[in-house]
Amino acid sequence: MAAGGAFGRWERTVAWRYLRNKRKNGGVALIAIISFAAVTMAVFALITVMSVMNGFRGELLGRLLGFNGHVYAQGPLINGPDRSGVISRIRAVPGVTQAAPMVEAQAMVIGPSQVTGAIVRGVTPDDLRGMKMISDNIKRGSIEGFGQGEYGGDIVLIGDRMARNLGLSVGDAITLISPSGPATAFGTSTREKDYTVGGIFSVGMSQFDESFVYMALPQAQLFFGRDTAVDYIEIKLVDPDKAKAIKPVIEQASGPGAFVQDWMDKNNSYFNALQVERKVMRLILFMIVAIATLNIISALVMLVKNKGRDIAILRTIGAGQGAILRIFVMAGASIGVAGTLAGLALGVVVCANIAAIQRFVEWVTGTAVFSADIYFLAHIPAKIDWTEVAIIVAISTVMSILATLPPAWRASRLDPVEALRYE
Description:
Elements: H1 9-19, H2 26-67, E1 71-74, H3 83-91, E2 96-110, E3 115-123, H4 125-130, H5 132-135, E4 138-141, E5 155-159, H6 160-166, E6 173-178, E7 183-184, E8 187-188, E9 191-201, H7 206-209, E10 212-216, H8 217-223, E11 232-237, H9 243-254, E12 259-262, H10 263-266, H11 268-306, H12 308-316, H13 321-352, H14 354-365, H15 372-375, H16 386-412, H17 416-420
Parallel strand pairs: 3-10, 5-9
Antiparallel strand pairs: 1-11, 1-12, 2-3, 2-6, 2-11, 4-9, 5-10, 6-9, 7-8
Helix pairs in contact: 1-13, 2-11, 2-13, 2-16, 11-13, 11-16, 13-16
């Protein structure tokens, strides 16, 4: 028999014929179909889960860094007479887009129907307009009256989930109670004041939309007894990933005794937990892919057993051990490669249409499958990392090929005399 080269036409033809669905080999065909489906679902699950985790991390990181600062500066000079000079020096640092003095404290918010706790932030109107995550996401009302009037006015902005929980709308009055009131003979008293809801924002993250209240900086200083002091300067950068590199320059600009903290330091445990969870989930899913490819071994073992006579005939007419090995490697690998490609296509389609799928499932079941109260986001995010997808496809393909080697090697070592003795 002519060799026809490695993986020649006749070898591919024989491998394809062995995979064709014939009645007498129905068991092999069934196991091959099961193996194909297992690899498909494993690759699909791996791509989908990792894309959702990438999207979840990206959404959280984007909203967290859009809502909060990238670097925080504290120190004696920040509340000294040269505060404006410190802020100017920080704003002049290359890569800094905003440096906003801020007061932040906890308070109790009383609405018409409920009472809740909140984090109150005091900022200047100009700095608030520069915070695009807030100013560009005003769903009702506006920020036009923010900071106007005596001591910065009594206009506040609240999140939409807080507005729904408290039964508030634009123009309604709310009462804020601060536990850090003036000292009396009977101890520290609370401070209470009524404010008007001037705008309602929604950043799409329930943790922020239900917990934060923004008021003018002078009013926050008055309400929380800060006099003219601020708690910190919130700094935003062009590229948040360069916070570590820019932090020493900001420390120098903030003056002696400054304490500067970047967003990675402040949220270190949170993002470390996400990273560990991502790595563990990837390992578990790769193990599922490995288990799925092991089904190929079962299909090939049965195929080799059923094709013992054919193998012996091929050997007697000139086919070498390498040709037999390649035939069964191609037969098994084609199952894994086809399953991998099908899982890739299915995963990409699902990730690209995950929002529509979420709405359809919620419409069919009548329940929220991705509750914002639990997952902090209002929808299931999915971000396909094509480098990661390529790695998944490559590993699945390699695993599929490796799974074919033991039964293919056994087929290539089959003795033609022994195989034909009882035929």
